[in-house]
Specification:
Blueprint: E1 2-10, E2 16-25, E3 30-34, H1 41-48, E4 56-61, E5 64-65, H2 71-78, E6 81-84, H3 96-101, H4 110-114, H5 120-132, H6 148-161, E7 166-170, H7 178-195, E8 199-202, H8 206-212, E9 215-220, E10 223-228, H9 235-243, H10 257-262
Parallel strand pairs: 3-8, 3-9, 6-7, 7-8
Antiparallel strand pairs: 1-2, 1-4, 4-5, 9-10
Helix pairs in contact: 5-6, 6-7
Length: about 270
C-alpha cells in the first residue's frame, strides 16, 4: 500500500511544486493523476521513487518511510518500484528479452549482469513478464525494430520483471496514437490488477483515465482539488482542476468548455 501524507516540495529557486498532498493507493488499485502541466503530477512520482527530495511530509510504501532511507536503502527500494516512462527508456540495440532482463539488475551480481548473464530463474521471470503483455514472440528481436506500442509493452514487461510492490507510470501513452493508447492502457491496467500491484499513472488524457482507472486525483497548482471515482468527475470538477493554472484575469469557462479544456496538454 502507498500512503502519502502532507507532501510538500519546494525547489531551490523557491517554487512550491507541491503544497500539501495526501492520498493512498491500495492493493491492485489503479490511480490516475490528472491536471495541467506544472500541477505536480510528475513531481509526485519522482518523490515516491526517491528521485526528488521532499521538503515536508511522509511517503510510506508498505509501511516503509521512503524519506527516512539512506542512498543504499533507496536503491534497494527501487528494485520493488516499477517505473514506466513516456520515452520507453529501452536500450534499442539490445534484444527484447535483454531489455526485460534489465528489470532484474537490482537482484543480480554486478559482473555477471554487465556481461548480460542471468541465471535460469531470472530468465523465467523475464519470459513470464513478456507473456503477460503478449510480447513473447518478439523476445529475440532488437528493440529498435518495434513499434511505439510494442516498445511500451516491453517497458511494462520490464517493470513486471522487477516483481514490483508498486508501479509508477509517467505519461505512458503520450507518444502513442489513440488506438495504441487504449491498447497499452488496457495491458497496463490488466497486468497490474492481475498482480494486485497498486499503480499510479500520470496521464494527459482524461477520457483514458476515466475509462481505465479506479480512482482519479485532480491536481492544480500543487494541491489535490479532487479525489474520487471517475463517475464523480463532473464538468464543474474539471473546471476546478483545469482553471487553477490559468491567469486569474481570464474568464471562467462556461459549462461545456471544461471537458474540452481537459483535452489540452496536461
Amino acid at each position: 500500500m502507498l500512503e502519502i501524507h502532507d507532501l510538500r516540495v519546494v525547489y531551490p529557486n523557491g517554487y512550491e511544486a507541491l503544497k500539501s498532498v495526501s492520498f493512498t493507493a491500495g492493493e491492485g488499485e489503479i490511480v490516475a493523476l490528472i491536471g495541467r502541466s506544472g500541477a505536480g503530477k510528475s513531481t509526485i512520482l519522482r518523490c515516491v521513487n526517491g528521485l526528488q527530495p521532499v521538503t515536508a511530509g511522509r511517503i510510506l510504501l508498505n509501511g516503509v518511510d521512503v524519506g527516512s532511507l539512506g542512498e543504499e536503502e533507496i536503491r534497494r527500494l527501487r528494485r520493488k518500484i516499477g517505473f514506466i516512462w513516456q520515452e520507453y527508456n529501452l536500450v534499442e540495440r539490445l534484444t527484447v528479452i535483454k531489455n526485460v532482463l534489465s528489470g532484474r539488475l537490482g537482484y543480480t551480481e554486478r559482473v555477471p549482469s554487465c556481461c548480460h548473464w542471468f541465471d535460469r530463474g531470472h530468465r523465467e521471470i523475464a519470459v513470464s513478464s513478456l507473456e503477460k503483455v503478449n510480447m513473447l514472440h518478439r523476445a529475440t528481436q532488437r528493440a529498435d525494430r518495434l513499434s511505439g506500442g510494442e516498445k511500451q509493452r516491453i517497458a511494462i514487461a520490464r517493470a513486471l520483471a522487477q516483481e514490483p510492490e508498486l508501479i509508477l507510470a509517467d505519461e505512458p501513452v503520450a507518444s502513442l496514437d489513440i488506438e495504441l493508447s487504449r491498447q497499452v492502457m488496457s495491458d497496463l491496467v490488466r497486468v497490474s490488477r492481475q498482480q494486485r500491484v497498486p499503480t499510479l499513472i500520470s496521464i494527459h488524457d482524461v477520457d483514458l483515465a476515466r475509462t481505465f482507472c479506479d480512482r482519479l486525483i485532480g491536481l492544480a497548482q500543487g494541491n489535490v482539488v479532487f479525489d474520487g471515482p471517475p463517475r464523480d468527475l463532473t464538468e464543474p470538477v474539471l473546471d476546478r482542476i483545469y482553471r487553477f493554472d490559468r491567469p486569474l484575469d481570464l474568464p471562467v469557462p462556461v459549462p461545456g468548455q471544461a471537458a474540452a479544456m481537459a483535452g489540452v496538454g496536461a
